[in-house]
Structures are given as structure tokens and as C-alpha cells.
Amino acid sequence: MNINNYFDYNATTPTDARVFEAMEDFYKEKFHNPSSFYREAGVVANEIENARENIAKLINCKPDEIFFTGSGTESDNLAIIGTVRKLKDKGNHIITSKIEHPAVLESCKYLEKNGFEVTYLTVDRDGLINLEDLKKAIKSSTLLISIMFANNEIGVIQPIKEIADIAKNNKILFHTDAVQAVGKLKIDVKDLGVDLLSLSSHKIYGVKGIGVLYKKKGLRIEPLIFGGGHENGLRAGTENVAGIIGTGKAAEIAMEEMETEELRIKPLREKIIKELFEKIPELILNSSATNCLYNTINISIKHIEGEAILALLDAHGMSFSSGSACSSKSLDPSHVLLAIGLEHAEAHGSLRISLGKYSTEEGVNKLIEVLPPVVERLRSMSPFWNKG
Ligand SMILES: *Cc1c(COP(=O)(O)O)cnc(C)c1O
After folding, report:
1. What is the rounded CA–CA span in Å between residue 206 and residue 17?
2. Which residue's CA is the nearest one to ligand 1's atom 6?
């Protein structure tokens, strides 16, 4: 596999070699259980605290506000379910949006089956929620607002600070799924005023199977997993030590390299959009022109199926997503693309191009060269394409 041809960084990122190197010892001589009594265990426990500190720095919070979980999904579940279970005597209403990740949407659906009420805010053509709609959705029974920082499929970035202000003015807690934003955008949880924030290691060049939840000091939520009192009682289970160490390293690297990476990747994204729109007729740009992650492009290629494009690109050794990887096994079109107003057929013809640390000009040039003839070939076989 040639990493130049990888265009699916929003699905997962490769583990940075420096992360892997930092982890290695913890699979060898530093194997000890951090909860044990002896000196070696203490060394491991200290290293976990160093990692916690690095992650805290990345989002500007205190280390004791950082909790390790088993995935971004688990962090979302814990933030939402854990919060409303704790507050269930005060109300039963949750506000979220229609374009959240399944980790949030499915948590909400589960809660709906268990006596809670959920409002799913609609979004505009760019994928933005409307702040007036948010204010109108608030009831005396509202416990929590959960709105994602940046969307994994189309890259739209929500006005997080404004949402946090509305939540605070109404004494409602605010959680944000920042899995796609952390490591790409500068995030300061104190300045933003969020109460809970989820992130995932494997989306920031760390490792799979580690998530992080930021929980504001003093805020009490119910755990989902019970046992030996790890992570201050919030998430029991012997720590995934190596994964935590790797995540700490990934956070450290992100802090150092985030700004230069943005400057490097932004022009690659602009070049792709410009050239594809010049070379391919009847494209729709689904990612917001103004409020979008600098690494994400989502387009719909009219009159063809996303899966067919993926297959032909795969034959060229190139990796992309159509819709999101999480739902790519189902035939339903992406809920995000439908929410921004696409027709079913347009949503089915979508292609997500997401760039990252190992994206190069060379890879981008190959994409610009390969995609137009692939589209032409597929359209020439399509009964819906006017060949006139
Ligand atoms: C990937 C992703 C998740 C899930 O994180 P995992 O660690 O893969 O469980 C949640 N939310 C968003 C926005 C994501 O992109």
C-alpha cells in the first residue's frame, strides 16, 4: 500500500512512528499493572499521568479532568448516558443534531427507549445548526445539549462557543463530540466553556481502542462500567497502558505540528476542489465553503453510485469513503447528506476525500488524474446520464 494514495483520514489515521516507538517499552519491560504496589508499577502509573498531562495541554484543561476510555464511541456514550442518568430527577430532555456520529445518535435512541425525550435539530445546506432553533428547543426539562464540533462526513464546524453560551445561560450541560476537531483545530475547553468533550486516539495518529473524555471539574456523571475504581471511579478496568502512552505522545506531536500541517494541507484541499470542478461536470460540493475542516472534501458525483467509484478507485490502489465508514455496510444513504438536503440519488453518489499528515502533492495529482476518467466511464454506462 502506498500511503500517498490514502484519502480516508477521517475514518482512521496511521499510527505515527514516534507514537509506536513511545509505546513499545510498555509491551516489553514496562508491562506492570499500574495499580500494583512495587516500584516498577509506580513508574508505569507515573507515565500514565504524564500522558494525561499532555492530553490536558492539547485542549487546555487540568489533568484530573481527563478520563481514558476504550474509544471515541465509549466517550460519547459515557458523556451522554452518564450525564442524564445522574440528572434524571431534574428532567428527561436532550438536544442534539441530525448529523451527529452514530455514537451519539444511537446513545440518544437508546435513551428514548428508556423514558428520555430527544430533540434532533435540523441543519442548513452547509450542515450548520440554527442557534435560534436551539434556543427554541430548550425546555425546563432539558438536561443536556450534545452537538459535534466538526462533522466526520462533510467537515462542517459548528459554532461551539455560542452553543456553550446558550447552554450556560439556561443552566444546561453541554457535550461536544470533538473526535474530528481535536488535533486539527486549536481547542481550548475553558475558553469555549464546554462541560464534556470526547476525542479518539486513532483519529489523531494515535492508536485504535483508546478514547478520552474531558469532564469539567466538579461535574458528576454516572459510570457505565463498574469495577476496581480506575479513572477516579468513572471507568473501571485495568488501563490500556501502551495505548494511553501512545495517545499522550500523539497529543504532544499534534500540539507541535498542528499549525504547520494546516498550512500544508489547506492548499492541497483547494487544489483538489478546483481541479475536480474544472474537469468533471455536474458535481455538487457537500462540504461547507466557509465553515469546514481544512482536510475534508465531500462531493456528490451526479448519476453514479458512490460504491462504484470506490471500487474503481480501489482498483487504482486508492482509498476513499462514500458516506461514512461506519455506515458503509448498509445501503441507506448517509443521514448527514440527507439532513443537508440532498436527494437519495445524490447522497448515494457521494465521495469523501479526507487528507492528513502523509498526504502529498504527488498523491493529490494522481487523484486529479484518475478520478475524471473513472467518472466518465461510469457515467457512460449509466442509463441516467445524458450522453448527448
Ligand atoms: C470516529 C468517530 C467517532 C468514534 O470514535 P471511535 O474511537 O472510532 O469509536 C465518534 N465521533 C466522530 C465524529 C468520529 O469521527
Report:
1. 10
2. 72
**Span 319-348, pLDDT tens digits:** 999 964 444 556 689 999 999 999 999 999
Place of cell 499534534: 254
**Strands 296-301 and 350-354, sheet pairing:** antiparallel
Q: Can you list the positions of beta strands (E) in 172-210? A: 173-177, 196-200
Binned at pLDDT 50, 70 and 90, residue 289 comes out as confident
Report the share of the chain in percent with pLDDT over 90. 93
Which atom of ligand 1 sits closest to the CA of residue 12?
1
Is-catalytic flag, 292? no
pTM across the whole model: 0.97
How remote is the CA of residue 59 from the centroid of ligand 1, in Å? Answer: 17
Mean pLDDT, residues 376-385: 85
User: 83 CA distance to ligand 1 centroid (A)?
Assistant: 19
Closest CA to 295 of 352, 350, 247, 256: 352
Maximum separation of any 2 CA atoms in the chain, in Å: 78
Domains of the chain with bracketed CATH = 3-12+258-380 (3.90.1150.10), 17-253 (3.40.640.10)
Test site for ligand 1: of 12, 73, 74, most ligand atoms within 8 A of the Cβ: 73
Q: Show the ligand 1 pocket: residues with CB < 6 angstroms.
A: 71-73, 76, 101, 103, 148, 152, 177, 179-180, 200, 202-203, 211
**Which atom of ligand 1 is the closest one to the Cα of 201?**
7
CA of 211, closest atom in ligand 1: 7
The confidence score (pLDDT) of residue 330 equals: 62
pLDDT (mean) for 115-139: 98
